[in-house]
Amino acid sequence: GSSSGGMMTQHLLALHPDVFKAGASFMGVPFNCFAGASDYPPGSSRCTGGSMDRTPQQWGDAVRQAYPGYSGPRPRVQLWHGTGDTLVPYSLLRESIEQWTDVFGLSQPPTATDTPQAGWNRSRYANASGTAQVEAYSIQGAGHVLPQSGMARYAIDFFGLTTSQTDTTPPTAPAGLTASGTTATGTTLTWTASTDDTGVTGYDILRAAGTTGGTFTQAGTSPTPSFTDTGLTANTTYRYQVRARDAAGNVSPVSGTIQVTTQPGSTTGACSATATVQTQWGNGYVIQPLTITNTGTSTITTWTVTFTLPAGHTLTGSWNATITTSGQTITARSAAHNGTLAAGASTSFGFQASRPNGNTALPSGYTCA
């Protein structure tokens, strides 16, 4: 259905899930959008006035309440909308996506995205078996003029009524997921390649922090059955899963889960620098104390702190450190009496600087080594 027919399509799917197998809504609105006297007619309604915004659960509850007690399968839903549509605002595509993904219990981020034709951005929301239950098309620049040439064919394909372009069989789940070469900041994953009747196009790597709980989110993609994950935190446990995608946009079930704990890393010689503004005035300030703390696990005998003065600022004095200046970069090295710090111990130094009158900027980028 298109326009008012697109609206009716979504309403029929909500009211009669036992009658319909699937529906394609062009330029429609979510079920229950036109509910109550204030939401009709379309020309003056809150629904199509551009201010309709509900949570996915609120939209999903509206569908569930339309047929109380229904527990059978729900019709699959295909949604189309032009980004330039002002009669039925494009923002209602997002509301429809939220409604139907909630009805199916699917996550909001799509499981697959692609561009079937120039200007067509397609998002698919698949269940655990890889079947796209909700499919949404954003047509760049299009107004209230859908469907256009070729779109009906994609709807027919979505219904499964053709064979030449339709493939709803997902790849097999990746197997044998293992990790190797784990360091303090990274690990390499490998697995057995999935199989598919149209060909696997890539893999999504999913990661969750901790040994239990948390949500798996996409850490990256790979065109081959291997992936190196970097930027991890030392001495931290992560869990990984992998899923495959094929050329038709189908997504496989996830692989088994593996658990990886990164190496502790080196904490010897680590330190931190924390600056405190003691006083400031119109054209100057004093930083005291600038505290250096040994955050490592063994004693350090020297430390070096660097930081940046704002443009126009000049160092006019310092104490308890040896200072060198290069442009606006200041390097402060420990003095003979305060360079040795046991693990967890602290010391400090200070400095005074001038600045243009009325300039309230302060130094930044403090680092310690």
Summarize the structure.
With 369 residues, the protein is mainly beta.
Shape designation: elongated
Q: Averaging pLDDT over every residue, what do you get? A: 90
What is the domain tally? 3
Structural class: mainly beta
Can you tell me the CATH class of the largest domain? Answer: Alpha Beta
**Share of residues in strands:** 35-45%
Low-confidence stretches: none
Distance between the termini: 66 Å
Note down, in words, how this protein is organized.
With 369 residues, the protein is mainly β. It folds into 3 domains: 4-159, 3-Layer(aba) Sandwich (Rossmann fold); 175-261, Immunoglobulin-like (Sandwich), CATH 2.60.40.10; 271-368, Immunoglobulin-like. Helix content is 12%, strand content 37%. The chain is built from 4 helices and 20 strands. It has helices at 4-15, 56-66, 91-104, 151-159, and strands spanning 22-26, 76-82, 112-114, 120-126, 132-139, 175-180, 187-192, 200-209, 217-222, 226-229, 237-246, 258-261, 271-281, 284-294, 304-308, 314-319, 321-326, 329-334, 346-354, 364-368. The strands form 5 sheets. A 5-stranded mixed beta sheet has the order 1-2-5-4-3, sandwiched between helices. Strands 9-8-11-12 form a 4-stranded antiparallel beta sheet, with no helix packed on it. It has a 4-stranded antiparallel beta sheet with strand order 13-14-19-16, with no helix packed on it. α2 packs across α3. It starts with a helix and ends with a strand.
